Q: What sequence folds into this?
């Protein structure tokens, strides 16, 4: 009888040690993932954890009675706090003022609880062992546990279970030990039933966490989006997320809204029709960017158009817009039309080697928020663009918001002019975007705008377009530098203006 | 008690976890060790004494296919009808402007950029215009540079205090007092840029030989750059790092071993203006200056012979006899030329030039010393990032022994360049370059890989996992060291004097600094002197 009590308690020392180190490693790893700079994170987490263990052992002297019951109680607490710590950290990152404070509080709490346990267990066992045996045994199991944790954590737990499941699993170990101890000391401890109850509840909670950890991870992502996520894909270039609520679909690229199905018709009508409508017999149309096929949908309204070439870098984008049923409804299967050729290529590379000319060109790139995309708005690119426009042809470029980012917008206009394009700036109100800017450009002496618009359009008619060409007093044209590969002023303007707006 | 034990146990454990993301054994980085054919070069030391039986004649022979030799040849081709050939030891011409390539991109093995040339360098501007680097001139006569050749934005970033800042002049987290000193230094340099001597010439210009003879400026050659800074009460550690970085960048020497005249020339020699860019932009290409070397070489294909080791240049009956070994065929040849240009460094001339002292063969080569360099090209899985300014063309780590790295793919127009290659520059400055050179030759690829990764890990802790291949190129005699007293010293002046109007000399070591413009004008000047008898 005596021997098995000792064995059981020493086994629980082993479990406590293993779990304790795992929680420490989980916190360190997560902090490195989320905050970067792993040396600092591990170093400070370990320091904070060990110091908290010190606080725990200091506090242990205030526990004078019912030591076994307290040990079980603390074990359950460790199980719950440690087990759910990684989930809490994931959920709270980006959502609280000071993530570091939460992180260190959680580390401190776990440390204090774990720090309480070993002194308590030494006192529980003090009459059952010689002091020298007691010290030797407890340290032995403590350190074996630490070794085990440190080896299995990087080699098996993180690669095979992931961080969330790992913490739940070790929480479960703690809780199971607590439950076994409850039964074993059933007669000796106070509040046995209450303790058993909490053990069972903790076990159920942790098992649930383990089973649902994938869903939890998905949920942490979904918090970034107000609506239900119906599709996600990670391409080499961007994260594509499609959300849905009762009245619209929304597409996000790297977290930036690309369109809402409720008002995208405004954007795409404004993008395509003013430029395309005036062209006499437009046969060939080029769309750069716009892998969603929505601009192509508008282009295909013109029966004269015989050929549309769409160049989009991202295969994932054109894939979902040729496969996802709701999205096919949205773009009316435009990309599947026999008139349409989809090319997945880098637009700059493509345009340099392309020799074909087009009557109308739609340039619908992502906003110039980084130096990579910024290249597609430079005078060098626009010089290439000149080559692909057929005589009498027109071009349209989406050019961010002239209200929020006037220097960015007019920089696009001025850069087009600098390479010899005649420009016609205009803008439209798209509720989910705000006041959005476009630039029509041509190499001809004037624009062709006389014709009435197609009657089936929901937004545009001639009167509306005339208004769109008017820039009100608070949105005047601006002098800017020309955007070049060697200055990328547009990226600087864009960061500054949108940065100010979003903060 | 337990806690203190645990603390002892916990820390090494934590250490092992830190490495846990890295497999237990460090990843071995594959790659090759390369360099100029120094075995062939070292054949020279055996003082080959074979007298070739095969003889041909030429009007002119140019020895050395670096930028000076190529530019001399170009000038000859354009301005004379002389029958000439160019002999190069290596399999490829280009000298320090060598380049390489892998399946995805080209990259430099040496010199990798040309600052906008000063507007009075007519021949160089013409060369750039011929090759469409300059597309025209504006109404004010300023050159319009082709946008693809101007370094794209972002150009430079510096990793300092845990953050990538824009530009290389330290400012992120730099104390106010240091910033003031840095500004004062830059103001002084701006003054020096415009300074003129009593003879009306710029104090510092390019080519160096066109600089003012005013003793007020020339005496700066008699102290070191580090001493000059101290004399001007410029003591900031940040400033000293920056100036030291610049000396190593252009000369491969530390500021404490660099002539102050040369050090200031780095900042004050260039005064270019352009129609369509700020004056501090540089011209660069994915393969670095190899792009320029290829353009120089193009019209010369018929005249160039590579893999030819010249081992003796002597005067025979009023002609210059050039004896060389065809390395591939292992055959010996002699060319009897009317005249000859040695576009070779003086440490080579010392071995091959066989002229009696009374004819001008008495030359002091000891004053010429050369800095060794290591250049590595690393093929990466993905571009290196970091906090702050995004990946730029030139990426420098504050406090590092290296000059940082340049992204070879930067000038590609692709939106997201795949399979990036970075070129890592490590000068090996030492008061005793011969010792540094010996040590460099002893190292294996593994040794270089570890050394280079240790430097890169200062800014990119996990870069090892990202490296697919790491090739290293050792330049034993990378570039001339402008040590104190060298640029305006007698030895250099004596070494550039032609021998009997038959043998002419062209090399950046006769300028004292190893830059493209100097090499270009060394070649032109030697060819002009030879043909036109110009002094």
A:
């Amino acid at each position: 009888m005596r021997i098995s009590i000792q064995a059981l308690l020493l086994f629980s020392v082993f479990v406590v040690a293993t779990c304790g180190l795992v929680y420490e490693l989980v916190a360190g790893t997560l902090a490195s993932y989320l905050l970067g700079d792993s040396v600092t994170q591990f170093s400070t987490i370990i320091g904070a954890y060990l110091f908290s263990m010190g606080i725990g052992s200091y506090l242990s002297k205030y526990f004078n009675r019912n030591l076994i019951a307290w040990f079980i109680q603390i074990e359950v607490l460790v199980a719950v706090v440690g087990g759910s710590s990684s989930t809490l950290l994931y959920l709270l990152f980006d959502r609280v003022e000071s993530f570091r404070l939460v992180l260190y509080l959680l580390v401190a709490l776990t440390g204090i609880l774990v720090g309480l346990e070993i002194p308590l267990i030494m006192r529980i066992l003090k009459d059952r062992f010689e002091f020298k045996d007691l010290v030797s045994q407890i340290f032995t199991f403590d350190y074996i546990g630490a070794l085990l944790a440190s080896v299995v954590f990087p080699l098996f737990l993180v690669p095979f279970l992931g961080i969330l499941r790992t913490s739940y699993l070790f929480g479960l170990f703690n809780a199971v030990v607590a439950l076994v101890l409850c039964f074993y000391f059933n007669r000796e401890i106070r509040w046995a039933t209450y303790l058993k109850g909490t053990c069972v509840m903790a076990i159920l909670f942790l098992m649930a966490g383990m089973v649902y950890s994938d869903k939890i991870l998905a949920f942490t992502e979904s918090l970034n989006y107000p609506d239900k996520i119906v599709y996600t894909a990670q391409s080499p270039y961007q994260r594509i997320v499609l959300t849905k609520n009762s009245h619209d679909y929304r597409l996000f690229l790297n977290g930036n809204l690309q369109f809402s199905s409720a008002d995208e018709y405004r954007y795409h009508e404004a993008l395509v029709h003013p430029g395309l409508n005036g062209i006499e017999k437009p046969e060939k149309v080029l769309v750069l960017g716009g892998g969603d096929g929505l601009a192509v949908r508008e282009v295909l309204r013109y029966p004269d158009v015989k050929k549309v070439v769409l160049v989009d870098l991202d295969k994932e984008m054109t894939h979902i817009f040729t496969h996802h049923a709701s999205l096919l409804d949205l773009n009316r299967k435009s990309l599947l039309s026999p008139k349409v050729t989809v090319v997945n290529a880098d637009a700059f590379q493509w345009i340099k080697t392309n020799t074909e000319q087009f009557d109308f060109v739609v340039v619908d790139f992502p906003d110039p928020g980084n130096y990579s995309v910024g290249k597609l708005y430079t005078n060098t690119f626009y010089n290439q663009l000149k080559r692909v426009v057929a005589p009498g042809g027109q071009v349209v470029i989406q050019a961010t918001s002239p209200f929020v980012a006037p220097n960015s917008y007019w920089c696009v206009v001025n850069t087009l002019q600098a390479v010899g394009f005649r420009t016609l700036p205009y803008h439209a109100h798209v509720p989910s975007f705000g006041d959005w800017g476009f630039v029509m450009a041509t190499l001809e002496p004037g624009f062709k705008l006389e014709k009435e618009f197609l009657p089936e359009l929901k937004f545009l008619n001639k009167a509306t377009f005339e208004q769109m060409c008017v820039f009100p007093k608070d949105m005047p044209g601006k002098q800017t530098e020309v955007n070049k590969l060697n200055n990328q002023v547009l990226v600087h303007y864009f960061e500054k203006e949108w940065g100010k707006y979003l903060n | 008690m337990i806690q203190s034990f645990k603390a002892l146990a916990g820390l090494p454990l934590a250490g092992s976890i830190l490495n846990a993301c890295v497999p237990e054994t460090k990843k071995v980085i594959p790659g090759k060790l390369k360099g100029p054919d120094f075995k062939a070069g070292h054949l020279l030391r055996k003082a080959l004494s074979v007298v070739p039986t095969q003889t041909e004649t030429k009007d002119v022979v140019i020895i050395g296919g670096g930028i000076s030799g190529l530019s001399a040849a170009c000038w000859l081709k354009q301005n004379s009808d002389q029958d000439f050939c160019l002999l190069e030891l290596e399999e490829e011409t280009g000298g320090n402007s060598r380049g390489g390539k892998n399946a995805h991109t080209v990259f430099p093995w040496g010199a990798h950029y040309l600052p906008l040339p000063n507007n009075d360098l007519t021949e160089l501007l013409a060369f750039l215009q011929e090759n469409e680097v300059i597309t025209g001139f504006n109404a004010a006569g300023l050159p319009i540079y082709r946008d693809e050749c101007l370094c794209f934005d972002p150009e430079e970033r510096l990793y300092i205090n845990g953050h990538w800042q824009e530009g290389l002049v330290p400012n992120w987290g730099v104390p106010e007092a240091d910033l003031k000193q840095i500004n004062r230094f830059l103001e002084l340099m701006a003054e020096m840029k415009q300074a003129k001597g009593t003879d009306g010439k710029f104090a510092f210009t390019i080519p160096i030989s066109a600089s003012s003879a005013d003793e007020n400026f020339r005496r700066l050659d008699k102290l070191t750059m580090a001493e000059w800074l101290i004399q001007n009460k410029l003591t900031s550690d940040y400033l000293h790092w920056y100036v030291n970085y610049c000396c190593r960048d252009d000369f491969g020497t530390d500021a404490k071993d660099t002539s102050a005249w040369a050090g200031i020339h780095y900042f004050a020699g260039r005064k270019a203006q352009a129609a369509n860019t700020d004056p501090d932009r540089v011209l660069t290409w994915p393969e670095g200056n190899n792009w320029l070397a290829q353009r120089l070489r193009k019209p010369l294909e018929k005249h160039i012979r590579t893999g030819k080791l010249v081992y003796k240049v002597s005067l025979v009956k009023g002609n210059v006899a050039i004896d060389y070994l065809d390395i591939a065929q292992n055959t010996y040849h002699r060319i009897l030329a009317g005249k000859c240009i040695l576009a070779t460094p003086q440490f080579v001339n010392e071995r091959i030039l066989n002229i009696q002292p009374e004819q001008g063969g008495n030359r002091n080569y000891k004053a010429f010393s050369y800095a060794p360099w290591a250049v590595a090209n690393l093929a990466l899985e993905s571009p290196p990032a970091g906090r702050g300014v995004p990946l730029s063309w030139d990426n420098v780590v504050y406090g590092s022994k290296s000059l940082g790295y340049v992204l070879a793919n930067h000038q590609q127009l692709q939106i997201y360049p795949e399979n990036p290659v970075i070129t890592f520059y490590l000068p090996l400055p030492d008061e005793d370059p011969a010792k540094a050179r010996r040590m460099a030759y002893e190292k294996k690829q593994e040794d270089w890989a570890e050394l280079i990764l240790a430097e890169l890990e200062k800014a990119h802790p996990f870069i090892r996992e990202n490296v697919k291949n790491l090739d290293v190129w050792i330049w034993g005699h990378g570039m001339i060291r402008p040590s104190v007293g060298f640029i305006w010293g007698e030895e250099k002046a004596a070494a550039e004097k032609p021998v009997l109007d038959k043998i002419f000399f062209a090399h950046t070591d006769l300028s004292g600094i190893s830059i493209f413009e100097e090499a270009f004008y060394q070649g032109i000047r030697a060819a002009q002197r030879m043909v036109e008898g110009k002094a």
Q: What stands out?
A: Chain A touches chain B through 55 residues (CB under 8 Å).
